[in-house]
Amino acid sequence: MSESELEIVVDDPTAPEPDSPAVTSNRSVEIVVSLLLLALAALLGYDNWRTGNSWDSTGPEPGYFPFYLAVILAGASLYGLIAAYLAQQETTQTFVTWAQLRRVMAVFVPTLLFCLATQFLGLYVASFLLIAGFMRWVGKIAWWKSLLTAFLFTAAMFVTFDIAFDVIMPKGPLEAAFGY
Known about the structure:
- The protein is mainly alpha-helical.
- The chain contains seven helices and four strands; from the N terminus they run H-E-H-E-E-H-E-H-H-H-H.
- The chain starts with a helix and ends with a helix.
């Protein structure tokens, strides 16, 4: 038996193109993330210093441990920032290409819209729209299957959380119309 008969190769038609241009490099992302974490550490350090970061007669003040965690985060961020600046320029690797970023945004944007829709439509209607939309546009599944699956899932979620366990979930106008 030859090598080619043992190996099954399946091409993904939706895979990103290998020659897609780079959006940014690893080094740039490391610098930006280190700066953001350093800013977060400074904010946390200031806030915990303001609430008290020393010992009093009863023990540590409320900001004692969080303050020192912020100092550790700042030190780690500075280390990452210095390491990124000292990294060799010629060994720059691509962090993400445009094709990869498009695929990530195809998941991120609907998820962000789901979070916003939950505030106005409630969890169940927003979940229905998210599931049906993902199945149809990302999965390329037939409309009737997408709508049926989304309906069954959100109905099961409603029965489980609202009826069986009586958990308070964000509700919108549809649930209000049905008296929930």
